[in-house]
Write a structure and sequence with these properties.
The chain is an alpha+beta fold and about 400 residues long. It has 3 domains: about 60 residues, no CATH class; about 240 residues, Nucleotidyltransferase, domain 5, CATH 3.30.420; about 35 residues, no CATH class. It has 12 helices and 9 strands. A 9-stranded mixed β-sheet has the order 1-7-8-9-6-5-2-3-4, with helices on both faces. Strand 5, helix 4 and strand 6 form a beta-alpha-beta unit. Helix 2 crosses helix 5 and helix 3 runs parallel beside helix 4. The longest helix has about 30 residues. The two termini are about 20 Å apart.
Protein backbone atom coordinates (compact mmCIF):
# COMPACT_ATOMS: atom_id res chain seq x y z
CA UNK A 1 0.00 0.00 0.00
CA UNK A 2 1.48 3.38 -1.04
CA UNK A 3 -1.33 5.83 -0.24
CA UNK A 4 -0.81 7.44 3.18
CA UNK A 5 -4.40 8.17 4.15
CA UNK A 6 -3.52 10.24 7.22
CA UNK A 7 -2.02 12.90 4.94
CA UNK A 8 -5.39 13.59 3.29
CA UNK A 9 -7.58 13.26 6.39
CA UNK A 10 -8.11 17.04 6.60
CA UNK A 11 -9.04 17.15 2.91
CA UNK A 12 -11.65 14.44 3.46
CA UNK A 13 -13.15 16.35 6.39
CA UNK A 14 -13.31 19.58 4.38
CA UNK A 15 -14.82 17.74 1.42
CA UNK A 16 -17.58 16.36 3.66
CA UNK A 17 -18.41 19.82 5.07
CA UNK A 18 -18.58 21.40 1.61
CA UNK A 19 -20.67 18.53 0.25
CA UNK A 20 -23.19 18.86 3.08
CA UNK A 21 -23.53 22.60 2.42
CA UNK A 22 -23.93 22.07 -1.33
CA UNK A 23 -26.59 19.42 -0.77
CA UNK A 24 -28.61 21.97 1.20
CA UNK A 25 -28.34 24.51 -1.62
CA UNK A 26 -29.25 21.84 -4.17
CA UNK A 27 -32.44 21.02 -2.32
CA UNK A 28 -33.55 24.66 -2.59
CA UNK A 29 -32.74 24.79 -6.32
CA UNK A 30 -34.62 21.53 -6.95
CA UNK A 31 -37.70 22.87 -5.17
CA UNK A 32 -37.61 26.02 -7.32
CA UNK A 33 -37.17 24.03 -10.53
CA UNK A 34 -40.08 21.74 -9.65
CA UNK A 35 -42.25 24.83 -9.11
CA UNK A 36 -41.34 26.08 -12.59
CA UNK A 37 -42.18 22.66 -14.02
CA UNK A 38 -45.63 22.81 -12.43
CA UNK A 39 -46.21 26.44 -13.41
CA UNK A 40 -45.69 25.74 -17.12
CA UNK A 41 -47.01 22.15 -17.09
CA UNK A 42 -49.39 22.74 -20.04
CA UNK A 43 -48.37 26.21 -21.20
CA UNK A 44 -47.28 25.04 -24.64
CA UNK A 45 -47.13 28.52 -26.17
CA UNK A 46 -44.62 29.62 -23.51
CA UNK A 47 -42.60 26.45 -24.10
CA UNK A 48 -42.48 27.14 -27.84
CA UNK A 49 -41.50 30.77 -27.26
CA UNK A 50 -38.76 29.82 -24.79
CA UNK A 51 -37.21 27.26 -27.13
CA UNK A 52 -37.41 29.61 -30.11
CA UNK A 53 -35.77 32.42 -28.14
CA UNK A 54 -33.09 30.07 -26.83
CA UNK A 55 -32.31 28.80 -30.33
CA UNK A 56 -31.65 32.36 -31.50
CA UNK A 57 -29.88 33.78 -28.43
CA UNK A 58 -27.90 30.87 -26.95
CA UNK A 59 -24.45 29.64 -27.92
CA UNK A 60 -25.01 26.77 -30.40
CA UNK A 61 -21.82 25.06 -29.18
CA UNK A 62 -23.44 24.40 -25.80
CA UNK A 63 -27.19 24.62 -26.25
CA UNK A 64 -28.95 21.31 -25.67
CA UNK A 65 -32.54 21.27 -24.45
CA UNK A 66 -35.74 19.25 -24.46
CA UNK A 67 -39.15 19.87 -25.91
CA UNK A 68 -42.30 17.97 -24.90
CA UNK A 69 -43.14 15.32 -27.46
CA UNK A 70 -46.91 15.67 -27.21
CA UNK A 71 -49.42 17.93 -25.47
CA UNK A 72 -51.19 14.87 -24.06
CA UNK A 73 -48.60 14.61 -21.27
CA UNK A 74 -48.00 17.62 -18.94
CA UNK A 75 -44.41 18.57 -18.19
CA UNK A 76 -44.74 17.27 -14.62
CA UNK A 77 -46.51 14.01 -15.55
CA UNK A 78 -45.81 10.96 -13.37
CA UNK A 79 -47.21 7.95 -15.26
CA UNK A 80 -47.51 4.62 -13.40
CA UNK A 81 -46.08 1.46 -14.91
CA UNK A 82 -48.71 -0.51 -16.83
CA UNK A 83 -48.81 -4.30 -16.57
CA UNK A 84 -46.40 -5.94 -19.03
CA UNK A 85 -47.73 -7.85 -22.05
CA UNK A 86 -48.35 -11.58 -21.63
CA UNK A 87 -45.44 -12.40 -23.91
CA UNK A 88 -42.49 -10.54 -25.43
CA UNK A 89 -38.97 -11.07 -26.68
CA UNK A 90 -36.25 -8.92 -25.19
CA UNK A 91 -32.75 -8.74 -26.68
CA UNK A 92 -29.92 -6.91 -24.92
CA UNK A 93 -26.28 -6.38 -25.88
CA UNK A 94 -23.26 -4.89 -24.19
CA UNK A 95 -19.55 -4.74 -24.95
CA UNK A 96 -16.11 -4.81 -23.36
CA UNK A 97 -12.60 -4.52 -24.69
CA UNK A 98 -8.90 -4.97 -24.09
CA UNK A 99 -7.40 -1.80 -25.58
CA UNK A 100 -4.11 -1.78 -27.51
CA UNK A 101 -1.02 -1.58 -25.31
CA UNK A 102 2.19 -0.47 -26.97
CA UNK A 103 4.20 -1.82 -24.00
CA UNK A 104 2.81 -5.35 -24.41
CA UNK A 105 4.81 -8.07 -26.21
CA UNK A 106 2.34 -8.12 -29.12
CA UNK A 107 0.13 -5.37 -30.47
CA UNK A 108 -3.58 -6.16 -30.62
CA UNK A 109 -6.93 -5.24 -29.17
CA UNK A 110 -9.96 -7.34 -28.38
CA UNK A 111 -13.65 -6.49 -28.48
CA UNK A 112 -16.12 -8.83 -26.84
CA UNK A 113 -19.86 -8.35 -27.39
CA UNK A 114 -22.14 -10.14 -24.98
CA UNK A 115 -25.87 -10.44 -25.07
CA UNK A 116 -29.02 -12.16 -23.91
CA UNK A 117 -32.29 -13.11 -25.53
CA UNK A 118 -35.00 -13.16 -22.86
CA UNK A 119 -38.36 -14.82 -23.56
CA UNK A 120 -40.79 -12.86 -21.39
CA UNK A 121 -43.89 -14.82 -20.38
CA UNK A 122 -42.67 -18.03 -21.99
CA UNK A 123 -41.14 -21.24 -20.69
CA UNK A 124 -37.93 -21.01 -22.71
CA UNK A 125 -34.74 -20.28 -20.82
CA UNK A 126 -32.80 -17.09 -21.59
CA UNK A 127 -30.25 -17.47 -24.37
CA UNK A 128 -26.87 -15.86 -23.61
CA UNK A 129 -24.27 -15.34 -26.35
CA UNK A 130 -20.83 -13.81 -26.90
CA UNK A 131 -19.04 -12.56 -30.01
CA UNK A 132 -15.32 -11.96 -29.35
CA UNK A 133 -13.06 -10.44 -32.02
CA UNK A 134 -9.27 -10.15 -31.89
CA UNK A 135 -7.86 -7.35 -34.06
CA UNK A 136 -4.15 -7.05 -34.89
CA UNK A 137 -2.08 -5.20 -37.51
CA UNK A 138 -1.71 -7.20 -40.71
CA UNK A 139 0.41 -4.50 -42.36
CA UNK A 140 2.04 -1.16 -41.55
CA UNK A 141 -1.01 0.57 -43.01
CA UNK A 142 -3.08 -0.80 -40.10
CA UNK A 143 -0.94 0.70 -37.33
CA UNK A 144 -2.96 3.92 -37.01
CA UNK A 145 -5.87 1.87 -35.63
CA UNK A 146 -3.70 0.95 -32.62
CA UNK A 147 -2.62 4.42 -31.54
CA UNK A 148 -5.08 4.63 -28.63
CA UNK A 149 -8.22 3.28 -27.00
CA UNK A 150 -10.67 5.97 -28.16
CA UNK A 151 -11.16 4.49 -31.62
CA UNK A 152 -11.57 1.04 -30.06
CA UNK A 153 -14.34 2.36 -27.79
CA UNK A 154 -16.19 3.70 -30.82
CA UNK A 155 -15.72 0.44 -32.70
CA UNK A 156 -17.11 -1.43 -29.69
CA UNK A 157 -20.15 0.88 -29.54
CA UNK A 158 -20.90 0.29 -33.22
CA UNK A 159 -20.53 -3.48 -32.80
CA UNK A 160 -22.96 -3.42 -29.85
CA UNK A 161 -25.79 -1.91 -31.88
CA UNK A 162 -24.86 -3.88 -35.03
CA UNK A 163 -25.08 -7.13 -33.05
CA UNK A 164 -28.38 -5.98 -31.55
CA UNK A 165 -29.72 -5.28 -35.03
CA UNK A 166 -28.65 -8.70 -36.34
CA UNK A 167 -30.27 -10.44 -33.39
CA UNK A 168 -33.47 -8.42 -33.86
CA UNK A 169 -33.64 -9.61 -37.47
CA UNK A 170 -32.95 -13.21 -36.43
CA UNK A 171 -35.73 -13.15 -33.77
CA UNK A 172 -38.29 -11.07 -35.67
CA UNK A 173 -40.70 -14.02 -35.85
CA UNK A 174 -40.63 -14.62 -32.09
CA UNK A 175 -43.19 -13.45 -29.53
CA UNK A 176 -44.13 -9.80 -29.90
CA UNK A 177 -43.46 -7.12 -28.91
CA UNK A 178 -39.78 -7.48 -29.70
CA UNK A 179 -37.67 -5.08 -27.62
CA UNK A 180 -34.04 -4.31 -28.50
CA UNK A 181 -32.22 -2.93 -25.47
CA UNK A 182 -28.89 -1.10 -25.23
CA UNK A 183 -26.92 0.06 -22.19
CA UNK A 184 -26.13 3.19 -24.16
CA UNK A 185 -27.54 6.50 -25.34
CA UNK A 186 -29.35 6.31 -28.68
CA UNK A 187 -28.29 9.78 -29.83
CA UNK A 188 -24.81 8.51 -30.58
CA UNK A 189 -22.05 10.97 -31.38
CA UNK A 190 -18.45 9.69 -31.23
CA UNK A 191 -16.11 11.82 -29.15
CA UNK A 192 -12.64 11.51 -27.72
CA UNK A 193 -10.74 9.99 -30.62
CA UNK A 194 -8.64 11.66 -33.27
CA UNK A 195 -8.86 10.29 -36.75
CA UNK A 196 -12.34 8.81 -36.34
CA UNK A 197 -14.67 9.70 -39.21
CA UNK A 198 -17.64 11.09 -37.27
CA UNK A 199 -19.97 11.05 -40.27
CA UNK A 200 -19.12 7.43 -41.01
CA UNK A 201 -19.68 6.34 -37.41
CA UNK A 202 -23.00 8.19 -37.18
CA UNK A 203 -24.07 6.74 -40.53
CA UNK A 204 -23.21 3.19 -39.38
CA UNK A 205 -25.15 3.74 -36.14
CA UNK A 206 -28.19 4.94 -38.07
CA UNK A 207 -27.87 1.97 -40.41
CA UNK A 208 -28.22 -0.37 -37.44
CA UNK A 209 -31.22 1.61 -36.19
CA UNK A 210 -32.77 1.19 -39.63
CA UNK A 211 -32.31 -2.59 -39.46
CA UNK A 212 -33.91 -2.76 -36.02
CA UNK A 213 -36.86 -0.72 -37.24
CA UNK A 214 -37.23 -2.86 -40.35
CA UNK A 215 -37.31 -5.98 -38.14
CA UNK A 216 -40.43 -4.60 -36.46
CA UNK A 217 -38.64 -4.19 -33.13
CA UNK A 218 -38.95 -1.52 -30.49
CA UNK A 219 -35.64 0.08 -29.51
CA UNK A 220 -34.51 1.79 -26.34
CA UNK A 221 -31.30 2.86 -24.65
CA UNK A 222 -31.09 2.57 -20.88
CA UNK A 223 -28.89 5.20 -19.20
CA UNK A 224 -28.34 4.60 -15.50
CA UNK A 225 -27.67 7.69 -13.35
CA UNK A 226 -27.86 10.14 -16.29
CA UNK A 227 -26.26 13.57 -16.05
CA UNK A 228 -28.43 15.18 -18.75
CA UNK A 229 -29.71 18.74 -18.19
CA UNK A 230 -32.04 18.95 -21.21
CA UNK A 231 -35.29 19.46 -19.26
CA UNK A 232 -33.56 21.76 -16.78
CA UNK A 233 -32.31 23.84 -19.71
CA UNK A 234 -35.90 24.12 -20.95
CA UNK A 235 -36.99 25.32 -17.50
CA UNK A 236 -34.21 27.89 -17.36
CA UNK A 237 -35.25 29.17 -20.81
CA UNK A 238 -38.83 29.53 -19.54
CA UNK A 239 -37.57 31.52 -16.56
CA UNK A 240 -35.48 33.64 -18.92
CA UNK A 241 -38.59 34.92 -20.70
CA UNK A 242 -39.44 37.01 -17.65
CA UNK A 243 -35.88 38.03 -16.76
CA UNK A 244 -34.38 40.97 -18.66
CA UNK A 245 -30.94 40.21 -17.23
CA UNK A 246 -30.98 36.51 -18.13
CA UNK A 247 -27.73 35.31 -19.73
CA UNK A 248 -28.90 33.20 -22.68
CA UNK A 249 -25.30 32.34 -23.60
CA UNK A 250 -25.04 30.15 -20.49
CA UNK A 251 -27.83 27.80 -21.61
CA UNK A 252 -26.56 24.27 -22.00
CA UNK A 253 -23.88 24.65 -19.33
CA UNK A 254 -24.17 23.19 -15.84
CA UNK A 255 -23.63 26.70 -14.48
CA UNK A 256 -26.99 27.73 -15.94
CA UNK A 257 -28.86 25.02 -14.03
CA UNK A 258 -26.94 25.63 -10.77
CA UNK A 259 -25.63 22.08 -10.92
CA UNK A 260 -29.13 20.53 -10.98
CA UNK A 261 -29.52 17.68 -13.46
CA UNK A 262 -32.76 16.26 -14.80
CA UNK A 263 -32.18 13.21 -12.62
CA UNK A 264 -32.17 15.36 -9.47
CA UNK A 265 -35.30 17.18 -10.67
CA UNK A 266 -37.33 14.03 -11.33
CA UNK A 267 -36.05 12.04 -8.36
CA UNK A 268 -38.64 13.43 -5.90
CA UNK A 269 -41.39 13.56 -8.56
CA UNK A 270 -41.45 9.95 -9.75
CA UNK A 271 -42.55 7.06 -7.57
CA UNK A 272 -41.43 3.45 -8.07
CA UNK A 273 -42.19 2.33 -11.62
CA UNK A 274 -43.37 5.77 -12.74
CA UNK A 275 -42.09 7.57 -15.82
CA UNK A 276 -42.04 11.20 -16.84
CA UNK A 277 -43.58 12.70 -19.95
CA UNK A 278 -41.80 11.95 -23.22
CA UNK A 279 -39.42 14.68 -24.37
CA UNK A 280 -37.39 15.12 -27.56
CA UNK A 281 -33.78 16.29 -27.61
CA UNK A 282 -33.31 19.76 -29.08
CA UNK A 283 -29.78 19.68 -30.50
CA UNK A 284 -27.82 19.73 -33.72
CA UNK A 285 -26.91 16.02 -33.43
CA UNK A 286 -30.60 15.11 -33.17
CA UNK A 287 -31.29 17.23 -36.25
CA UNK A 288 -28.62 15.14 -38.00
CA UNK A 289 -30.32 11.92 -36.90
CA UNK A 290 -33.68 13.18 -38.19
CA UNK A 291 -31.91 14.08 -41.43
CA UNK A 292 -30.90 10.45 -41.91
CA UNK A 293 -34.46 9.32 -41.23
CA UNK A 294 -37.23 11.18 -39.40
CA UNK A 295 -38.02 7.91 -37.61
CA UNK A 296 -34.57 8.08 -35.96
CA UNK A 297 -35.03 11.39 -34.14
CA UNK A 298 -34.35 10.56 -30.48
CA UNK A 299 -36.79 11.18 -27.66
CA UNK A 300 -36.61 10.10 -24.03
CA UNK A 301 -38.36 9.82 -20.70
CA UNK A 302 -37.13 9.52 -17.16
CA UNK A 303 -37.96 6.44 -15.13
CA UNK A 304 -37.89 5.40 -11.49
CA UNK A 305 -37.14 1.68 -11.95
CA UNK A 306 -38.71 0.92 -8.59
CA UNK A 307 -35.75 -0.51 -6.74
CA UNK A 308 -34.08 1.40 -3.97
CA UNK A 309 -34.73 5.08 -3.21
CA UNK A 310 -34.92 7.75 -5.89
CA UNK A 311 -32.90 5.92 -8.55
CA UNK A 312 -33.66 7.61 -11.86
CA UNK A 313 -32.76 6.30 -15.31
CA UNK A 314 -33.19 7.89 -18.71
CA UNK A 315 -34.83 5.80 -21.41
CA UNK A 316 -33.98 6.87 -24.96
CA UNK A 317 -36.42 5.91 -27.71
CA UNK A 318 -36.50 6.67 -31.44
CA UNK A 319 -39.34 8.59 -33.06
CA UNK A 320 -40.94 5.41 -34.39
CA UNK A 321 -41.48 4.33 -30.78
CA UNK A 322 -42.30 7.76 -29.35
CA UNK A 323 -45.08 8.42 -31.86
CA UNK A 324 -46.87 5.16 -30.95
CA UNK A 325 -48.53 5.33 -27.52
CA UNK A 326 -48.85 1.54 -27.35
CA UNK A 327 -45.15 1.16 -28.13
CA UNK A 328 -44.16 3.62 -25.38
CA UNK A 329 -46.42 1.72 -22.97
CA UNK A 330 -44.76 -1.59 -23.92
CA UNK A 331 -41.25 -0.19 -23.43
CA UNK A 332 -42.22 1.32 -20.07
CA UNK A 333 -43.87 -1.89 -18.84
CA UNK A 334 -41.14 -4.27 -20.02
CA UNK A 335 -38.25 -2.20 -18.70
CA UNK A 336 -39.87 -1.87 -15.27
CA UNK A 337 -40.64 -5.59 -15.23
CA UNK A 338 -37.01 -6.35 -16.10
CA UNK A 339 -35.80 -4.06 -13.32
CA UNK A 340 -38.04 -5.73 -10.77
CA UNK A 341 -36.30 -9.05 -11.43
CA UNK A 342 -33.08 -7.84 -9.80
CA UNK A 343 -33.95 -4.57 -8.05
CA UNK A 344 -33.26 -1.43 -10.08
CA UNK A 345 -31.60 -2.40 -13.37
CA UNK A 346 -32.84 -4.45 -16.36
CA UNK A 347 -32.03 -8.13 -15.93
CA UNK A 348 -31.27 -8.66 -19.63
CA UNK A 349 -28.72 -5.83 -19.61
CA UNK A 350 -27.10 -7.13 -16.43
CA UNK A 351 -26.69 -10.54 -18.04
CA UNK A 352 -25.42 -9.00 -21.28
CA UNK A 353 -22.76 -7.15 -19.27
CA UNK A 354 -21.87 -10.40 -17.49
CA UNK A 355 -21.37 -12.11 -20.84
CA UNK A 356 -19.39 -9.20 -22.31
CA UNK A 357 -16.98 -8.26 -19.54
CA UNK A 358 -13.35 -9.28 -20.01
CA UNK A 359 -11.73 -9.49 -16.59
CA UNK A 360 -8.09 -9.23 -15.61
CA UNK A 361 -7.73 -13.00 -15.43
CA UNK A 362 -9.24 -13.36 -18.91
CA UNK A 363 -6.78 -10.80 -20.28
CA UNK A 364 -3.81 -12.48 -18.56
CA UNK A 365 -4.80 -15.91 -19.88
CA UNK A 366 -5.26 -14.49 -23.38
CA UNK A 367 -1.74 -13.02 -23.28
CA UNK A 368 -0.31 -16.33 -22.06
CA UNK A 369 -2.11 -18.22 -24.83
CA UNK A 370 -0.89 -15.70 -27.39
CA UNK A 371 2.74 -16.07 -26.27
CA UNK A 372 2.54 -19.87 -26.46
CA UNK A 373 1.10 -19.79 -29.97
CA UNK A 374 3.67 -17.19 -31.08
CA UNK A 375 6.49 -19.40 -29.81
CA UNK A 376 5.14 -22.29 -31.88
CA UNK A 377 5.61 -20.09 -34.91
CA UNK A 378 9.09 -19.00 -33.89
CA UNK A 379 8.07 -15.49 -32.80
CA UNK A 380 9.68 -14.27 -29.59
CA UNK A 381 7.94 -11.78 -27.31
CA UNK A 382 9.17 -8.19 -27.25
CA UNK A 383 7.96 -6.61 -24.02
CA UNK A 384 9.15 -3.08 -23.19
CA UNK A 385 11.46 -2.31 -20.28
CA UNK A 386 8.72 -0.17 -18.73
CA UNK A 387 6.29 -3.09 -18.65
CA UNK A 388 8.95 -5.42 -17.25
CA UNK A 389 9.75 -2.98 -14.44
CA UNK A 390 6.07 -2.56 -13.60
CA UNK A 391 5.56 -6.29 -13.24
CA UNK A 392 8.67 -6.62 -11.07
CA UNK A 393 7.59 -3.70 -8.84
CA UNK A 394 4.10 -5.15 -8.43
CA UNK A 395 5.34 -8.62 -7.65
CA UNK A 396 4.15 -10.04 -10.93
CA UNK A 397 0.72 -8.44 -10.71
CA UNK A 398 -0.67 -6.97 -13.92
CA UNK A 399 -3.27 -4.37 -14.67
CA UNK A 400 -5.20 -3.92 -17.91
CA UNK A 401 -6.53 -0.40 -18.20
CA UNK A 402 -10.12 -0.16 -19.47
CA UNK A 403 -10.98 -3.83 -18.98
Amino acid sequence: MTLEYEKIQSDLERMARITAARRGEQAEHITAAAATLRRYRTNWSAVEQALDTARHRSDPKFFRAARPFAAAEPLDAAIPAPPPPDQATIIATDGSQIPPDRHAPFLYYLINIGGLVYHHGGIRSPEPFTLPELVYPESDADLDRFSGGGAVNIERDLKEIDTLARQAVAYRQEAQPLLALLDQRLLYWPIGSEGVAVNTAVSDWNGSMESIHAAGALLCGYIDRPETIAVMTLLRALEGLADDDFDWKLLGKRQATQGITDRLLFGPLLGPGERSAVFTFVSDPNDTFAGYNTAHEVSFFYLNPGGFGEQIARIDIPHWVAENAAAVTAVHALVVDQCRLIGDYPYALARADEMAVVGRRDAAELNTMLEIIMQRHGVESDQTAKQNSKELARGGKTRHEGV
